[in-house]
Input
Amino acid sequence: MSSNQDDFILGLPRRPRLADASAGAILGAIALGLLTGGVGGAIIGGVAGSALANQRQPLEMAIREYLKSQNLDVTFYYPAPRAVKVTFQYGANAYWTVESVLPDHVEVTPEDAADWLYGNLIQEELPKILPRLRRAS
Output
């Protein structure tokens, strides 16, 4: 996967694309097209699947997948328009809540806000606490 300026917002990584999470998105769209409209439907489904795969993952999905890659299980997910709070389990009976809040002075679209919240959470907020949690567990 190549990286370019479109993969960042205000210096933070954006949410991964759906295609990065699941190659099945395009195949599913093609299969749905075949079921609903034959070969023509499959072509339309393939185009729709390709467009869908190019979309960014929903914020919750991106956060859950990132935390899963860190061997952490999301217990609660609390979204807000300019913030996200996530409680995750990092041990048998050990939980932690981390929060990302978009500053009031930053004016962005809702999609860019979701990207910023994701990037801030994984690049700024989680690195502050993960070393302490890993030492404690």
